[in-house]
Amino acid sequence: MALRMLLLGSARAAKLAVYYQPARQFASAAGKSGGGAGGFIGGLAALGAGLWAANEYGYINLSQATQGLQASIPQLGEPKKDYGAVRKAIEDLLDADDYDDGSYGPVLVRLAWHASGTYCAASNTGGSNGATMRFAPESDHGANAGLTVARKLLDPVKAAHPWISYADLWTLAGAVAIEAMGGPTIPWRPGRVDKTGTSDCPPDGRLPDASQGAGHVRDVFGRMGFDDREMVALIGAHSLGRCHADRSGYSGPWTNAPTTFSNLYFQELLNNKWRKKRWDGPLQYEDKSGALMMLPADMALLWDKKFKKYVELYAKDEEAFFKDFAAAFSKLMELGVPWPAAA
């Protein structure tokens, strides 16, 4: 799906690699990936004002949302694919005084993550393509408890823009939410299709188990093709949101700013003194104040020497974290998607 790009004031068309970029601008943008499915991300480049999207990879610049950006030139009778309008509709849903810490952003990131994190490289099954969490048994998997909230939240957006697949909508919502909460630009492109039944649902147990240690983390993320650095970067999404006892059994936020995407998670993990929480729930750790918590899988990043060096890096260098997270999260959302050949 190739589009031509036009720079305002010039008749010269160019093919450039571009990435999802909403109207609100924050500190960091995407950088290189460590290879694999995201190896091409290192070629993505920021665009100046007025630069319209597309190249052979199909990445979209949504910075001109109000001008009706389309991802492809529609054929006669095809609906207009205005991804800028979808982005704006998602942004309009984020603030919510009556939900958690005042934002649906973290649960939308969790939806994109869990919809994508079921991928298995060996069998090429699972992943974001298909949006199979719409169906049981996947919708009932314990790791997906509470995500009905996010799926229902996006249903009106889908109804208003029926041409977008659920699979594209869920992943785009995650990208929009991350940047709206101050995080990096996430390279995103459309092309996922929806499955129509339960036969494509991945088996239970593919998502990370918070009660486990470093070996489990490497098994789960390694199954998808991630290396240690990418694993730590992706777990940095715990800078957002909180755990709910009625969903996972765990309770509390990782940071005091659960609706701001930052490297604070790594700073808290590295610099706080953590102790086992005394309560009737599963094993988790708390800081001295009892206000913050860490899961056993979080502590594994601190106790494993190979993981810890990246915790230390990201705790002191937010730019490095943003760069690595953007590349790894984009890669996560693309695993298993059968992209069309470049034009």
Characteristic key phrases:
disordered N terminus; two-stranded antiparallel ribbon; about 350 residues; mainly alpha; Peroxidase, domain 1; single chain; Peroxidase, domain 2
Provide an overview of this structure.
The protein is mainly α and 343 residues long. Strand 3 and strand 4 (252-253) form a beta hairpin. Mean pLDDT is 84; it is low at 1-56 and 64-69. It has helices at residues 83-94, 105-116, 148-160, 166-180, 214-224, 228-235, 264-271, 296-303, 305-316, 318-334, and strands at residues 5-6, 13-14, 242-243, 252-253, 275-276, 285-286, 293-294. It is 34% helix and 4% strand. The chain is globular and about 60 Å long.
Summarize the structure.
With 343 residues, this protein is mainly alpha-helical. It has helices at residues 83-94, 105-116, 148-160, 166-180, 214-224, 228-235, 264-271, 296-303, 305-316, 318-334, and strands at 5-6, 13-14, 242-243, 252-253, 275-276, 285-286, 293-294. Helices cover 34% and strands 4% of the residues.
List the helices and strands and how they pair.
Elements: E1 5-6, E2 13-14, H1 83-94, H2 105-116, H3 148-160, H4 166-180, H5 214-224, H6 228-235, E3 242-243, E4 252-253, H7 264-271, E5 275-276, E6 285-286, E7 293-294, H8 296-303, H9 305-316, H10 318-334
Antiparallel strand pairs: 1-2, 3-4, 5-6, 6-7
